[in-house]
Amino acid sequence: MSSVAVLTPESFAEHLSGVPEDEAYIPTYLEAFPPLPENKGAPGDKSGEPAGAWGSKIRPIKASVITQVFNVPLEERRYKDNSQFGDGGEEAKVCLDIMQRTGAHIELSLAKDQGLSIMVTGKLDSVMKARKEIVSRLQTQASATVAIPKEHHRFVIGKNGEKLQELELKTATKIAIPRPDDPSLNIRITGTKEGIEKARHEILLISAEQDKRAVERLSLEKVFHPFIAGAYNRLVQELCQETGARVSIPPPSLHKDEIVITGEKEAVALAISRIRAIYDEKAKSVMVVEVTAPAWLHRFIIGKKGQNIGRITQQLPKVHIEFTDGEERISLEGPTEEVEQAQVQIQDIIRDLLVRMDYTDVNIDQRFHRHLIGKNGANINRIKEQYKVSVWIPQEPDRSGLVRIEGDPKGVQLARRELMEMAQRMENERTKDLIVEQKFHRAIIGQKGEKIKEVRDKFPEVMINFPDPAQKSDIVQLRGPKNEVEKCAKFLAKLIADLMENSFSLSIPIFKQFHKNIIGKGGANIKKDCGGVHIHFPSEGSGSDRVTVRGPAGEVERAKRQLLQLAEEKAECGRIGFTFLVNNFTAELQAKPEYHKFLIGKGGVNIRGVRDRTGARIIFPSPDEPEQELITIIGREEAVRLAQKELETLVKNLDDVVEDSMVVETRHHRYFVCRRGQVLRELAEEYGGVAVSFPRTGTHSDRITLKGAKDCVEAAKRRIQEIIEDLEAQVSVEVAVPQRYHRAVMGPKGVRIQQITRDYEVQVKFPERDDNNTAGQPRQSGNEWNPEAEFVLRKCDVITISGRTEKCELAKIALLALVPVTEDVEVSFELHRYIIGQKGSGIRKMMEEYEVNIWVPQPEQQSDVIKVTGQVANVERAKSGLLERVKELQAEQEDRALRSFKVSISVDPKFHPKIIGRKGAVISQIRKDHDVNVQFPDKGDELQDVIVISGYERNTEEARSAIELLVSTLQEMVSHDVHLDPRTHARIIGARGKAVRKTMEEFKVDIRFPQPGSEDPGRVTVTGLPESVDNAVDHLLNLEEEYVSDGRETIISIWSKRDKLSKGFVVRDAPWNDKAPDMSNAEDFPTFGAGLAPKQTSAWGPKKF
């Protein structure tokens, strides 16, 4: 058995490194050259094959790479100039581009008949895509049409266009199918003649296959559909299998009588005859019966998950049973005998249920329903489980108080009694509202609700509800038994009084430099002199010198005196005057934030009166300040005291909560409570948080309740009376606006119409939308919208405005100002496409910017009129913007005309590559410097020496001068061939041409090396100015000499190192190291003619002589 060993460069290099023998491990021959596994069986015996990977049967794998070869005849070639065939030809460039885009490998060759032979190799998908592109780009294209019925087009397209894509790839053609709204039957195929024929054949096959199919619709009464379908649709499934047609029966939930049959014509006809036979048979034997049963009992007749009815329909599958909601009848349809049996069974169920079941209705006020249900349904679920009944409580929108109980007669009565007791208990409960300033809510609740939990544990029957912090409400609601509520209210009142007593605060101005001295070390001075209160000094960087003291009123006043005394002592010690300016006296006042608006008054009238009377300056907190209740008074001391007293009187009056009522007719109630109580919220904000309560719907009471400060309540009553007078003086004005403009009038989310209602204090009502737009809509010309169509008034076009007469008229004017108008703008037809922009981007941008609709006529009309529709102001802005755009486009047209100036220059084609430069660098720079376009002649043009320059006249002349200067320089250039040792070329060129590029840039020359396989591999061409060429040649020769000498030294060094080696590659126990055979051994090396022992046979066989 032969062995193969591979010595890698790395191992050889390691061997050359001269590792001493005693340090290197010498492998054995078998370790260095392990043998391949041997076949130990007899020849031809497969049992001796190894059981490993080499011996297992390998399953053939289908190749993932395929090769396709096809030809393009000469007459169908797109590029027929064979002089350009090869690497530089257009066909080769096209193939290279296709290879890069598809990943397939393409080989191109020229046949004897001048046709193209193309071989494409790669994965199937890549080959098919490459083949399609090759045919479309290298082969002349023809086109043909094939006409098939319109309904077959969708089968050619296939699901998601997959069939069409497959067909195009398979035939290497482009197939254009008319749009669904196009009545044309013709499908256009573009490609080669062979591909067109293939595609045409495939399309006709698809159409022929569809011609064999048919679609029929049978309209049969829905009552007979179950008989045609059969139990579990078995009958219709058997029908489909026997006939081969597809039968589609609408489901029971879909109220349609139409049955659709599709398939082969013969199969459809057979299915129709079978279905009609079933229908005719059943139509004669079907009857309809009605059974009377109370509507509340229907769900019990049906049973849990339809068990009762399911049992009947399983026994009598041809019977259809239908329950009607809200009616006391059950309909049965089907064969006479089976319907009678089903009727008997249902009547038995009804009789049994009437004996076992009962129901009752209980009228409970709807406001108690949620308490009956309980948290997460706890109460009602308990009642259901305990008494084995069902309880139906109406949903909130029903506004019904009727609660229904169904189930066992005894359980129904017990559940009714418990629900009535719960309702009566809730009616006896009392609700009480406590006015607690919101700033105390957190203190009452405590950290993590600890304090309020103690209160609730003390009064477990009382529910205590605090308002949401976002509502900024002071009302805490108590609900429960009357006595418990009163006790809880007294307890909370005492708790609040303690909090209020300890929450008195004053702000004292003390110079900042005294703060540290007043506090003392570790707060010693403060603790000694001002105990029992909370004192807050401002932080270092705050810039404030005011010290806040909070606690019981008496303790706060005492602490204030102590602090001022300390400040005076520190001032005397530091010989600093501590005097308060007469005109800079400050006092502070606490008032709820909701009182501030009332204290200020409408337009500031109230606070201005206080300022005028006292001469003090009053500052209210800004929204972002932490102390929202603190009002600061600044001025002379007597003025500040007077203003403080007056404001305290006003606040005290506001704190005195009173409850009053007034009569408001019920027809006006809706105005106050609609829009989620918007009017009531405005009243509360404007009049110191006054609470206005309207009676519940259905109570027929016209008395409303107002609760709050006395002055606020009186002011709110006057305002409500004014609103009522406005409502009674209201009139309705109708405004006719075409329905198509209603959305524009409303604006985004109704913002425009909301502004009108606020500004003019009116109500605006839009009519219901009429989806039948055939009347009153703009006329159409073909598919064109005509903004000038005649308007026909309809009910859905009338908008109603309600309010005072004068305000309604003003609102009407404002509303009509929002109605879009249409204006014509004269714009030259040639500019329309520029105004529209790419894919309509230009026109969309203008419509969004000016909030208008711009209508541009269709191109075939060639009209110069563009219509702009929108609000008057927006239309005017849009017209101005449109005219500005027209001016810009006209200026661009003039500029294009100036830029289209052309000049030609004749240049020898051999200089064209030099003018273009490497990767177009030279010509790109000329184009950039002179802002021109330079066009070189295409291959095959008659005038190969003409270069065309286009742009502004002056720029083209400058560019021509630049090119002429470049050409004159090129004409002075010379070319010189120098022979360099081919072994040095790679080093002269450098990695990726870096070294040779550096040389060319240094000497301003062009250096060309020979192509592989050239007749003269050592010839290098240097082109440039004579002096530069000479210098470059000298440089190259120097490099050659240097690299050749380096090469010799390297070779000598390597061989000298090899000569020094004592041994080559050494292995142990090699076959050649075995002892040489003994040639004198006659057995191993027998001699001719020598006598042998009789018992021994010759190695050369039996003796012949």
UniProtKB/TrEMBL annotation:
<feature type="domain" description="K Homology">
    <location>
        <begin position="821"/>
        <end position="887"/>
    </location>
</feature>
<feature type="domain" description="K Homology">
    <location>
        <begin position="656"/>
        <end position="725"/>
    </location>
</feature>
<keyword id="KW-0677">Repeat</keyword>
<dbReference type="InterPro" id="IPR057778">
    <property type="entry name" value="KH_Vigilin_N"/>
</dbReference>
<dbReference type="Pfam" id="PF00013">
    <property type="entry name" value="KH_1"/>
</dbReference>
<protein>
    <recommendedName>
        <fullName>Vigilin</fullName>
    </recommendedName>
</protein>
<keyword id="KW-0963">Cytoplasm</keyword>
<dbReference type="Pfam" id="PF24668">
    <property type="entry name" value="KH_Vigilin"/>
</dbReference>
<feature type="domain" description="K Homology">
    <location>
        <begin position="356"/>
        <end position="424"/>
    </location>
</feature>
<feature type="domain" description="K Homology">
    <location>
        <begin position="972"/>
        <end position="1041"/>
    </location>
</feature>
<feature type="domain" description="K Homology">
    <location>
        <begin position="583"/>
        <end position="652"/>
    </location>
</feature>
<dbReference type="GO" id="GO:0003729">
    <property type="term" value="F:mRNA binding"/>
</dbReference>
<feature type="domain" description="K Homology">
    <location>
        <begin position="428"/>
        <end position="497"/>
    </location>
</feature>
<feature type="domain" description="K Homology">
    <location>
        <begin position="212"/>
        <end position="280"/>
    </location>
</feature>
<feature type="domain" description="K Homology">
    <location>
        <begin position="729"/>
        <end position="820"/>
    </location>
</feature>
<keyword id="KW-0694">RNA-binding</keyword>
<dbReference type="GO" id="GO:0005737">
    <property type="term" value="C:cytoplasm"/>
</dbReference>
<dbReference type="InterPro" id="IPR004087">
    <property type="entry name" value="KH_dom"/>
</dbReference>
<dbReference type="InterPro" id="IPR004088">
    <property type="entry name" value="KH_dom_type_1"/>
</dbReference>
<feature type="domain" description="K Homology">
    <location>
        <begin position="502"/>
        <end position="568"/>
    </location>
</feature>
<dbReference type="InterPro" id="IPR036612">
    <property type="entry name" value="KH_dom_type_1_sf"/>
</dbReference>
<feature type="domain" description="K Homology">
    <location>
        <begin position="899"/>
        <end position="968"/>
    </location>
</feature>
<feature type="domain" description="K Homology">
    <location>
        <begin position="140"/>
        <end position="208"/>
    </location>
</feature>
<feature type="domain" description="K Homology">
    <location>
        <begin position="285"/>
        <end position="351"/>
    </location>
</feature>
